[in-house]
Amino acid sequence: MASRQYRRSPANRVKSVYVRRYPRFRFGRWENVTDHFRSPPGQLSFDF
Fold it and tell me: Which domain of life does the protein's organism represent (predicted)?
């Protein structure tokens, strides 16, 4: 039987990466995104 891979819930991740304010174009209009913290990307953990 193959083992299952479970993704961690986003609620369990620590928001440790600071993101500065920036303007973005979304849904056909410009908006200002405030500075905030986000979770680090999970893309660097490979499981081959």
Answer: Bacteria
5: left (phi over 0), alpha (psi -120 to 50) or beta: beta
Instruction: Output the pTM of the full model.
Output: 0.53
27 conformational bin, left if phi > 0, alpha if psi -120 to 50, beta if neither: left
For 1-48, the pLDDT digits (tens) are: 556 665 656 566 788 999 999 999 999 999 999 999 999 887 665 666
Between CA 6 and CA 18 the distance in angstroms is 27
**24/30 Cα distance (integer angstroms):** 6
